Amino acid sequence: MRPGQQLTLSIDHQTDFGYFLTDGEDTVLLHNSEITEDIEDKDEVEVFIYVDSQERLAATMKKPLISFYDYGWVEVTDKVEDMGVFVDVGLSKDALVATEHLPPYESVWPQKGDRLYCMLKVTNRGRMFAKPAPEDIISELFTDAGEEMMNKELTGTVYRLIASGSFIITDEGIRGFIHPTERKEEPRLGSRVTGRVIQVKEDGSVNMSLLPRKQDALSVDAEEILTYLRSRNGAMPYGDKSHPDDIRERFNLSKAAFKRALGHLMKTGRVYQENGWTYEKQ
User: Fold this and answer.
1) What Pfam families does the database record attribute to this sequence (predicted)?
2) pTM for the whole thing?
């Protein structure tokens, strides 16, 4: 017997704390806490072999959500700096997604509650590792988008991050791509996002935007400017003559978007400009 095996074993004998199972040569403990159905009258039990918290070979009737051959969605339970994230694989112990399978920046690592599409690897010493699926594996889940998806809002899970953008698989199974210019911040790996389809591509995938539509963005951007103004007691050293880089650094907006929002606030009498500064009207 070795960790990671799914075996059918015979019941050798019962104790107060569980059953000892055998393959004819070796025995292993199936603790009462790992029994999921009545086995009192059974001769054989199907179990998963793992290493328990005391480093002993043990058996469980709980079936892992994923295996070396079967990928599936698993939920993140914890993040450990410089180590990786742990995911719930349906057993008493969680599996580790090591740093080598995560983005280089911890700011976009998955957080508790996020989901990853993974397989499970168990070492001979019983350590459990989960590995996110490569593109060719997750592509088996994809469905093609039709032209009717244009401008629709879709929700999905971020499954891959690269320098040129973020990839998601939507709840419908559509592969979506989000360019950095179509988002205000980079989404976390494994996080859920909702975006608008801005292009349906010939291969059935879509390009998406996480930015609000212009008519919606105006009010959102204007509110952000007002919030910043109020944090500075109603005055800020930014106006429609400010340098684009300064605007981008402070508000994460293009100068055009900043000017549109500022112009709206001025037209509605909320703010005014004087000597390169912007003030909230009292």
Assistant:
1) CvfB_1st (PF21191), CvfB_2nd (PF21543), S1_2 (PF13509), WHD_CvfB (PF17783)
2) 0.75
